[in-house]
Amino acid sequence: MSAIIENVDKIFNVSLIYATFRSATPIIFAALCAALTQQANILNIGTEGIMLVGSFTAVGVSYLTGNWVIGVLAAMISGAFIASIMAVGHIKYNAEICAIGMGINMLALAVTKLLLNVIFKTNGTFSDPKIVPIPKVHFAFMDDIPVLNQLLNNWSITEWLAIVLILVLQFLFYKTVWGLRLRAVGQFAMAAQTAGIKVTQIKYQAMIASGLMGGLAGAHLSLGYSTQFVENMTNNRGFMGVAAMYFGGANPILTALGCLLFGFADSVGARLQAYGIPSQFVLMMPYIVTIVILAISMYVKYRNNKRKESSLLAPKAQLKTQG
Amino acid sequence: MSEYVVEMKDIQKSFGSVKAVKNGFFTAKKGEIHSLIGENGAGKSTMMKLLFGMYPIDEGEILINGNNTDKLTPKIAIDHGIGMVHQEFMLVGELTVLENIILGFEPQKGLKIDFDAAKKEVKKYIEQYHMDIQLEKKVNQISVGEAQRVEIIKTLMRGAEIIILDEPTAVLTPQEAQHLFKILMNLKKDHKTIVFISHKLNEVMNISDRISVMRQGQYIDTVEKGNTSPLELTKLMIGREVFLNIDKTYSKAGKTVLEVEDVWIPSQKETSKIRGMSFHVNEGEIVGVAGIDGNGQSELVEAIIGLREVEKGSIKLSGKNIANKKTRAIRKSGLSVIPEDRNTQGLNREMSIADNLAAVEMDRVPYSKGFMIRQEAIVQNAKEKVEAFDIRPDDYNLPTSSLSGGNAQKVVVAREVSMDNKLLIAAQPTRGVDIGAIESIRNSLEKAKKEGTAVLLVSAELEEIISLSDRIIVIHEGKITGEMPADEANENNLGLLMMGGTHE
């Protein structure tokens, strides 16, 4: 314990900011994947599986073609493919989305393991110099400014893209026609339908967009965050994304803030490990944070609701009365 | 071209094994207000939902402006100039009024929705028809009357020439209904065609040009308003004459059974919160609670029966405080309930009529002994009740989901009034029930009262409140705005109190 106190400045320093963001990014992509369908009132519990398939596809295609762009695109397409299987099952055949999602998660784990074996003749981990990673963005002028260098230099392209996508989805959901329709479908499908909106079409679109995003999440994890594929490398980041999405009520910016909390827990944990905190405890951190975040956000929601519903507090606006 | 803008001929429509519409027929002329009347379950709403393309027709043809349309969908119907204001509003509560109005055909500027252009367009209609609407508010913060006007604007914005309103006045006060009728008359002046679905004959006689009648899914007749009378329409609607006036006995009120003192009850909606309400119900009297839907009636009932928290105050049943007690305990101390939604609260729809009839006392003799259920007792009870309350069909093994609204409600009423409890809460006991069943349900309430039960009747139907109650309390936004003996009450003075006005 004393080691931690002595080294507190080494644990909490400027580089922690980027470390936090860096470990949050894969979860941000996953959370955006979940938010896209959540707006249509579909809980995409399959985020984890979609992401894992994306990770595998990205590494495999990058290895085979020597081109990271094709790898990323292939990952997105594979994500969309998986999502459309879920969409057909849920929307057309009315299957319970959580059951399909969990099925997809188990399938993804098994299929990637199998293909790793069949195509790359290996178990556990696949890394190879021929895998081309997503390049990092280097600003030469920052090299001499330590703070900027630590904060903003050498980000992977997809890390910048995550920020762009948060803003794009924010705009998409709340300012565009598609977003308005998507939210209407999610909140009261019958009303949307009678307004002449094709509800199933919107739901399919949301699922496929979510699949593209989930594939991208996986590609970032295996080609941007690292340069390898490891069995079950998503390691519950998909579920954390879903948790963060709940925390942010499917609002992209709030959702991303939730993801940063995970990132923070993760990177602080990693640093603490160096100072004698047991690794098992460190590994528990993100999950504890998940539970705490969900518990807090549910409690806050419950309390706000209760306050809003209370008859004892005076109404905010003067009620209209007439005689 | 024919003189009709809408022609529906030989329409057939079934849902599963239920024939909702057989030989349906309907026509509408340009610029008329055409009422479609019939009992609940007569197929009025179904006919109009078919016209709006919400379900496909099984057989028959629909012509709009002389064009044959098969495979109607809401989108195609809208393109043909048809708009519909549904009984349950098709508005998304979390979106603003403006967003709801433009949903489905949003004006765009670049990638964004052009809210300014939309607002300008909507304001034109607001002014033209003198509708009072706040565009920036979220829909779940506006009143029912306002929401209905939003629905009408929605149809106009979509270029509707034919506007269908499905029982629009069911949720309005008499005064709000008058406001609606003014809007409808203005629309008629602009040569819009209005289809008005209702079962309130005085309204129909008030605003219609022509009236079509349906009964049991069949077309009966179409008459000019000038050539008919409410009496004739009643006969057409139900195929016989009915007298809904039950002979009321004014009883001398006995001991106080239910005593509500300064209760405060939370609610999701601001206008439904109960803020300091006190009243009592005595043995052998019916106290009617009048009010527009959503002014706290449901919350009050839920609090009394233990389904909602009471934040302050006391509710006493025969002197015993029951506020914040469990429903089961409250029921044991002498409470019967006819809940406002029989399908979700009154019945288990998958279980049989017999099981539902015994449900509340299933854990007591004679229905069970120890941990064993006694099937013979349940069957015996079912046989008696099915006959006494004329529940049809009389096969008590059928699940209650196969019953019509009226018969399903009779199952609830039969169970609740037969328990001889001290207090009976009847919330919207005849909502969505046909006239025959209404008669029988009202008689059951009257009988319970004569036997000394204290009855609290909550209803949106003023006529029901006035004809059944001994005393009436009127609530508005969670407060009592007036109380009077039933023989002093009429639609006008109650309507005024329901709007939040004061007594004299």
From TrEMBL, chain A:
Keywords: Cell membrane, Membrane, Transmembrane, Transmembrane helix
Main location as per UniProt: membrane
Keyword RNA-binding among UniProt keywords: no
Database matches in InterPro entries: ABC_transp_permease
Pfam families: BPD_transp_2 (PF02653)
Subcellular location: Cell membrane
Residues that span the membrane, as ranges: 16-35, 42-62, 68-88, 100-120, 157-174, 243-265, 277-300
Membrane-topology annotation of the record: Multi-pass membrane protein
Highest taxon of the lineage: Bacteria
PANTHER family, A to Z: GUANOSINE ABC TRANSPORTER PERMEASE PROTEIN NUPQ, SUGAR ABC TRANSPORTER INTEGRAL MEMBRANE PROTEIN-RELATED
Name of the featured protein: ABC transporter permease
UniProtKB/TrEMBL annotation, chain B:
Stored Pfam families: ABC_tran
UniProt keyword Ligase present: no
Domain ABC transporter: start-end pairs: 6-241, 258-502
MF terms (GO), sorted A to Z: ATP binding
CDD domains xref list: ABC_Carb_Monos_I, ABC_Carb_Monos_II
SUPFAM superfamilies: P-loop containing nucleoside triphosphate hydrolases (SSF52540)
InterPro entries: AAA+_ATPase (IPR003593), ABC_carbohydrate_import_ATPase (IPR050107), ABC_transporter-like_ATP-bd (IPR003439), ABC_transporter-like_CS (IPR017871), P-loop_NTPase (IPR027417)
PROSITE patterns associated with the record: ABC_TRANSPORTER_1, ABC_TRANSPORTER_2
Keywords: ATP-binding, Nucleotide-binding
This protein's record includes keyword Nucleotide-binding: yes
Record's protein name: ABC transporter ATP-binding protein
Organism of provenance: Aequitasia blattaphilus
